Amino acid sequence: MVRIKKVYDKHYTVINNSILNDTSLKWEDKGLFTYLWSQSDEWDFYAKEVAKHSPDSEDKVYKILRKLEEHGYLLRQRQRNNKGQLKANKWLLSETPRQKWISMYKKRTDKKEAPIRQNPEQVKPDLEKPNVVKPDLTSTNCNKYLSKQVKNLNKSLSKGERERDKGIVKMLLNYLYIFAEQWHSKPITFSDHEINRMIRAVHGKDTRKLKEVAEKTIVYGEQYPQGYLLTCIKNLPEEAANEE
Q: Which superkingdom is the protein from (predicted)?
């Protein structure tokens, strides 16, 4: 029989045994909670900062934090000032599970689930074959117009246009980071290839709904956010031409 003898030293942490005896939590969950509990109340809690103090990845830390929220030991809230503007996150820890926090977490995560849409029955309509008239090839006005369109499509973007589109994508990525923090989701990472695709896709688009696109990606694009975001960008309406 093995007996444990405790060797006390300075800088110890006092914690309730409830979370340590909670069999629904893994040891990694209890360990991270104990680390958070040992910090001072003035310490700024950020998932990225927490990950720096462990060999575990940021993804692992985010997963454990969500587990603690799910079981009522952690509450993360987004604070607002008197003008309604978003401020930093506020983290609350409890040694014992709080049912109210569990309900708040469940309510928040339920909002993130996309509504289930039933596919309507599709009936193929009977279409009459249109009477197609072969155009007169002697008239070259149409051909000249089409050639001009192709030339414009193939024309490479100028340096100024590309810098503008880069700035728009940078703004979009910033919105993504803000909404990821607000929804307590892990930040979305993009490869250089994916960013270049977004830069090409955003050219000529009406960018007034970038915030809406960013939030939709965080809420509904959990499976493949990079592809979801690119699709949303492509579906943006074209930028209206300035009328003189």
A: Bacteria
